[in-house]
Design a protein that fits this description.
Layout lengths: L24 E3 L20 E3 L10 H9 L11 H7 L6 E5 L5 H8 L3 E6 L2 H13 L8 E5 L11 E7 L5 H13 L1 E12 L3 H4 L13 H7 L6 E15 L5 E14 L2
Parallel strand pairs: 2-5, 3-4, 3-6, 4-5, 6-7
Antiparallel strand pairs: 1-8, 7-9, 8-9
Length: 266
């Protein structure tokens, strides 16, 4: 699944697909090397693969299948702004989009020349992603493998140059499992990128999941990977400007807060 729409209240397996204007990074003071904060810094036929999974914290694949089936497009068509900014200048290679939803980030990466494995536990979402990839501008033919699997239990067969986890909002123990599996899939020199609804968004921001147990901070993600050898490129809270209704029925800019973590495996 890909991201929980602004204002949604989703228990446990909440995802968010917020879009943006202004972005400001408030980094945390912990780095293996000086952080460089830059603004925009395997070929096969698309196929379906399945791996075992069960329900997660009370929300199961069937519930998400029903949600994806109920509307033409649950989340935005284009890539997440942070994924686009941080991955735009990376050399292409093999990428893993973990909890890919309808595949907006996977499709964007494939169009840029990446060979992508898109993993989600909703088969309906993956089928929609495959359809979107087929009609998107720019060729993705043979560049995306769609895998139906649970991000907290799936073990990849390959290693990757890039791992993206965007708005996978889980309770801490399940998030830790997904984050660990994602980072473990990285090759030496590879990039790990995670963006999610920050814990402070509940009290200071707007929209996103209203369940504090599925929110997170950059510190949480680094703690999840405390035993790993890694280099911190950036880690902190980012602001995202979103449109909201004002008291006159118009729109006014509001601020949402996300956590953004970019790491490198030495």
């Amino acid at each position: 699944m890909d991201a929980c729409a602004e204002g949604d209240q989703v228990n446990d397996r909440a995802r968010g697909s917020p879009e943006d204007d202004a972005v400001h990074l408030a980094p945390i003071g912990h780095s293996a090397e000086p952080a460089h904060l830059h603004g925009v810094h395997a070929s096969r036929e698309p196929r379906r693969r399945q791996a075992g999974f069960g329900s997660i914290a009370g929300v199961d694949p069937k519930a998400w299948d029903e949600r994806y089936a109920a509307t033409e497009l649950v989340w935005s068509l284009g890539p997440n702004q942070f994924v686009e900014a941080e991955c735009a200048d990376l050399p292409t290679g093999r990428a893993l989009d973990l909890a890919a939803g309808e595949g907006r980030n996977a499709i964007w990466l494939a169009r840029r020349g990446w060979d992508v494995t898109a993993v989600d536990f909703s088969q309906v979402a993956l089928d929609k992603g495959r359809t979107l990839a087929g009609v998107s501008t720019g060729s993705t033919t043979g560049r995306i493998e769609w895998v139906c699997a649970d991000a907290t239990a799936w073990t990849p067969e390959d290693s990757y140059d890039l791992v993206v986890i965007a708005y996978l909002q889980l309770p801490a123990h399940e998030r830790r499992e997904a984050v660990g599996r994602g980072f473990a899939a990285l090759r030496s020199g590879g990039t790990f990128l995670l963006v999610g609804h920050d814990t402070t968004n509940l009290t200071e921001g707007t929209g996103g999941p209203q369940d504090a147990s599925v929110l997170l901070t950059a510190e949480d993600v680094l703690a999840d990977l405390a035993t790993e050898d890694l280099e911190i490129v950036l880690a902190g809270r980012v602001e995202r400007s979103v449109a909201g209704a004002d008291e006159h029925g118009g729109e006014s800019a509001q601020t949402a807060y996300d956590c953004l973590v970019r790491l490198r495996r030495p």
